[in-house]
Amino acid sequence: MRCKMIGVPLQDGASRLGCEMGPSALRTAGLKGALEELGHEVEDIGNVVPSVYPAVTHPNAAVRNLPEIVAWTSLLTDVAYHESRDAMPIFLGGDHAMSAGIVAGLSRRAAESGRPLFVLWLDAHTDFHTLETTDSGNLHGVPVAYFTGRPGFEGYMPALANPVDPSRVCMIGIRSVDPAERAALREGDVTVHDMRSIDEHGVAAVLRGFIETVAAAGGMLHVSLDVDFLDPSVAPAVGTTVPGGATFREAHLVMEMLHDSELVTSLDLVELNPFLDERGRTATLLVDLTASLMGRTVMDRPTKSF
Asked: Phi/psi at 17 (nearest 5 deg)?
C-alpha cells in the first residue's frame, strides 16, 4: 500500500501543552520504518501548519482558541481531501480537534468516489459537544458533532460540504461523557460502545458488527485512535487520562481485525503528549498498533480445513 504520513502539530484544542510534539515523537519512535518493513511505500510529507487565522468569536465565553481551530479545520479539510486521492493518509497528531477537518476532507473524497464514509472513533470521550454546550471550552471535544453536521457551528467553523451520516460513526472505549453530550447522543444514531459493553461482550464482538456494516455498504473507513482509548497504565502520555481503558491486547486485537477487514482507508493518531510520556513508551505503542493495523502479526494464520 502507498501511505502518506502527515504531521499535525496542533495543541490549541486541548488545555495542556505538549501535543504539538506528537508528530516528532511518532517519527522518532520509528513509524515510517515500521511500515516500510511491512512492504508499504511510505512518504512523509512533513508537518502542515495554517498561515491565516480568521477573526472570529463566539458568545460562549468558555470557548478557547476558536480562530486557531477554525484555521486548522479549514487547512486539514483541504489536506485530507488532496492527500487521500492516491494514498492512505496517516495523520500524526496533535490533539483531537484535528479530526474535525480531517474527516470533513475525507468525507468529500468519499462522496466524489461514490462511496459512504464510516468513522471508527477509538476514544474515552465522545467529543460530541457543540460550541454552545462545551463548558471547558476545549475544542478537542467538538469534532464528531462538527463533522456529523450538528447545528451550532454555522457562521463560526468552515461550512461542511459532506457531513458524515451519524449512523456511520461507531465509538468504542467510551467511559467519560458529559450530560449535554449524553443527551445529544440519545437523540442521534451514533453507535456507542462503552467499556461496560466491552467487558460484557468483548471488543471483538462489538467491532465485528461494525466491520460487517461497513463491508456491506462498500464503505471507506477512517480510524481515529486517541491515546486515551488505552488504559493509562499502558499509555500514560495523554492529558485526559481516564482509568479503565482498553488493554494492550484489546487494542492490538482491534487493529488486527481492522487489517483483516481490508476496509481502512485512512488513520489519525491523536492526543499523544510526549511531555507526559515515560521514555517514549506511549509513542512506541502507537507505532506498534499502527503496524498491527497495517499487517504485522505474531504469526501467520492460514485457513485450515477440518
From this structure: -75, 150
Confidence (pLDDT) at 303: 53
78 given a catalytic annotation: no
What's the confidence (pLDDT) of residue 240? 87
Q: Which residues fall within 8 angstroms of residue 136, CB to CB, at 6 or more apart?
A: 15, 62
CA distance linking residue 271 with residue 8, whole number of Å: 11
Active site residue 86: no
Give the mean pLDDT of the chain.
Answer: 96
Cα 149 from Cα 172, distance rounded (Å): 21
The topology under which CATH files domain 2-293 is: Arginase; Chain A (3.40.800)
Q: CB-based burial of residue 224 (10 Å sphere; 0-12 exposed, 13-18 middle, 19+ buried)?
A: buried
Q: Looking at 95, 123, 194, 250, which residue is catalytic?
A: 123
Give me the pLDDT at residue 188, please.
86
Q: Which residues of the chain have pLDDT under 50?
A: 306
Rounded (10°) CA dihedral 245, 172, 254, 246: 0
State yes or no: is 125 an active-site residue: yes
Domains of the chain, residue spans: 2-293
pLDDT > 90: what percent of the chain? 95
Of 26, 70, 40, 72, which Cα lies nearest the Cα of 274?
26
Annotated active-site residue 222? The verdict is: no
The yes-or-no answer on residue 165 being catalytic is no
